[in-house]
Design brief:
The complex is a heterodimer of chains A (203) and B (209).
Chain A lengths: L6 E3 L6 E3 L7 E4 L6 E3 L5 H21 L1 E7 L2 E6 H5 L9 H30 L8 H11 L5 H16 L3 E4 L1 H19 L2 H9 L1
Antiparallel strand pairs in A: 1-2, 3-4, 5-6, 5-7
Chain B lengths: L2 E3 L6 E3 L19 H21 L3 E5 L3 E4 L1 H10 L3 H31 L5 H15 L4 H12 L6 E5 L1 H19 L3 H5 L8 E2 L2 E3 L5
Helix pairs in contact in B: 1-3, 1-6, 2-3, 3-4, 3-6, 4-6
Classes of the chains: A alpha+beta (203), B mainly alpha (209).
Amino acid sequence: MTDLDTLIACPHCDAVYQITEPQTGERAVCGRCHTVLIAPRKRAGKQIIAIALAIVVLVIAATIFPFLSIRAAGLTHNSSILDAALAFSSSPLLVALSLAVAALIVFFPVLRAILAIYVLAPLVIDRPPLPGAIRAFRLSEALRPWSMAEIFAIGCAVALVKVADLAQVAFGPAFWMFSALVVLMIIQDSFMCRYSVWKSLEK
Amino acid sequence: MGLVACRRCTHLWPLGTQVCDRCGHRLQSRDKMALQKVWAWLIVGLICYIPANLYPMLATRTLISKQESTIIGGAIDLAHHGSFGIAAIIILASVFIPIGKFMAVAALAIGVKHGSRMTQLRRQQLYEVVEYIGRWSMIDVFVVAILSSLVQLGALASISPGRASLFFALSVIFTMLSAQSFDSRMIWDQEGPSPHPESLQPKSTKASA
């Protein structure tokens, strides 16, 4: 029996491999189902923390500032992301949906960013992980499919085209913050090598 | 090999270990109930999809008219007004993708039980596509949210969400849960376990850091 620490199992197809640590910039890919297993990056921890901080600041700002404004026949209306999230609260049946939308587009993305900082900050400065770091990283991974900020951004584009012939629409500052946010989140996700994080949490 | 793998952090443990020592994830070689969970979530999602299409998604009120439109009705209206592109996007995101998702998940679940003509790699790719696209159906709900918070111009024009938005969101969430409870390792089980661990060959990428 080989030492279990030197083995890795593909989470998608259960193929087992003997670990050969890839160099920075290389990736280890499952030969059977082509899932990327290990993809370490140089200074990824610091970069992810920096991006996560930016995400937290941007989300808070983007939630408060007006997002889009509409003008028709002299009437104007501003709408922030918070308004969009709470749009369903007009009728009691839809309040649950309202809360779900708020969670999907604001709360989950921020929570994931905060968890990433909590988990990675001690690792970057070579300290032992904070208590509960393992649980925090697990929660962050479980929330990954439920953080839907980028889908909201595309939804905006569709909504804009729909309203365009009804009234004049203008972007507020929060729209640009949100666009930046979406790009940052995608970068953060692609920098994160889960295998490396788990391994350093184990020590 | 007498080992059980952790699906979250890829560590291997001797068969019979209950909890992964590295990440605390519950270990289970194969969940016998996995397929039942898949079918259960899928059927609930399908049931929610029916009222999502029957009830109005949006209620538009202008000075001269008050109009409630369902998902498909709204798309047909848009096509009548000449915006065929948007109508196509809406039909694609809220009709073809959900129905395609129902069929794909069902096909994967049947394939595990009775075998499939598709190769394993093809089915794995199908599963990844379903998992990736599933979240994007939520776009329609977000569009309704944005429209009804934005278009509030008093008596001139206002849009409010309809009941269908709730059912549509539930349908998307349930099908996402259905796809998540599908264990893609079952696709590969028919091949039989690989007896010896191969060595993992690192590949260098074009975009090296």
